[in-house]
Amino acid sequence: MTDPMGFVPPPYPYDRLDRLAPLAAALDGGVVDLSIGTPCDPPPPEVVTALGHSNAERGYPASIGSEPLRAAIRGWLQRRFGVEVPLAQIAACVGTKEFVATTPQYLKLRSPSRDTVLYPAVAYPTYEMGAILAGCRAVAVPAAPDGGIDLAAIQPADAARALMLWVNSPSNPTGALSDLAAAAAWGRAHGVPVFSDECYVEFTWDGPPSTILHSGLEGVVAVHSLSKRSNLAGVRVGFYAGDPDLVNYLKEVRKHVGMMVPGPAQAAGVAALADDTHVQVQRDRYRRRLERLAHVLSAWSGLIIPMPAGSFYLWFDAGDGWAFAERLAREGGALVSPGDFYGAGGANNVRAAVVQPDERIELVARRLGVH
């Protein structure tokens, strides 16, 4: 029997779109799914080759990541951002969603006197869920006028109880950029570890890409994924790097849990991180699709749909996110995410992911009568 006072998982956000899918499927050509950030473009051939020819499938892989994988990560961080991170302060994770969801549990064991996870108010739902699963208080931090996290809005009492602060730049869903140097300084001033989710950093449109590691390694951990950068969401390769005490603690805990990126996936990660050309190709694709879809939806709806500062999402005020999503499914055959998936502050908004091929976006344009 289920304890009536026990935890009942809420509906998974994207399952709530199931009622709209038949509306989109009824149109000739079927559903164009712009609701989830699932890459559709192919990864580099050498990455696929590495998956099938690594000879790494027999033995247990290193939980912290193989030395070649960690060396490839270190090389990418130096090449892309100009930051030097010792190999011992880099470790792999099984994609980054599990890392986001489980890290509060491990930090709570380390710091039992603290019980609060701070995270952006309009954000990837797993920041809040990770806090809930750890039995912690999930405290949303409002956005600043520029869309980044408003550190000044954090109440002193919450800062005193904070186990960690999540920042996400570029943001999912808004695409906004946060002042990561300010976040690092706030964390150090308050003795709160800052975890910076940077999985969309390769798709930064306003200025150069930034990492919290630019401000030094003390008290901060940068979290990255190959899912978006290299179209490898199904392979589940992510990593974290930064403060030696935090990284070493998480490395040791995760060994006991058995969190291991499969060996062939680690080999694929090495190949992907060695190649920057395919990332530039993907950047160009996403930029083109963002511009095209923004034009299509603006022309059809009459709304002003801005380009994001980063990420591959359009985020805009539709007045009523669910009403817009239903109308677009019915008339354009496209599924998009109502903004309340990402917190109550997004109820008026819609997120559209430009992860479908150009021809599918053009199908939506034709359905909506937009040239």
Give the gist of this structure:
The chain has helices at 21-25, 45-52, 67-81, 97-110, 126-133, 156-161, 180-190, 226-229, 244-257, 263-273, 277-301, 321-332, 358-368, and strands at 32-33, 90-93, 116-120, 137-141, 162-168, 194-197, 220-225, 238-242, 313-317, 334-335, 337-338, 349-353. With 371 residues, the chain is α/β, with parallel strands linked by helices.
Structure description:
- This protein has 371 residues and is of the alpha/beta class.
- It has 2 domains: 13-42 and 277-368, Aspartate Aminotransferase, domain 1 (Alpha-Beta Complex), CATH 3.90.1150.10; 46-273, Type I PLP-dependent aspartate aminotransferase-like (Major domain) (Aspartate Aminotransferase, domain 2), CATH 3.40.640.
- 39% of the residues lie in helices and 14% in strands.
- The protein is built from 13 helices and 12 strands.
- The protein has helices at 21-25, 45-52, 67-81, 97-110, 126-133, 156-161, 180-190, 226-229, 244-257, 263-273, 277-301, 321-332, 358-368; strands at 32-33, 90-93, 116-120, 137-141, 162-168, 194-197, 220-225, 238-242, 313-317, 334-335, 337-338, 349-353.
- It has a 7-stranded mixed sheet with strand order 2-8-7-6-5-3-4, with helices on both faces. The protein has a 3-stranded antiparallel sheet with strand order 9-12-11, with helices on one face.
- Helix 7 links the parallel strand 5 (162-168) and strand 6 (194-197).
- Helix 3 packs parallel to helix 10, helix 4 (97-110) runs parallel beside helix 5 and helix 11 (277-301) packs parallel to helix 13 (358-368).
- The longest helix is centred in the C-terminal third of the chain and has 25 residues, at 277-301.
- It is globular.
- The mean pLDDT is 96.
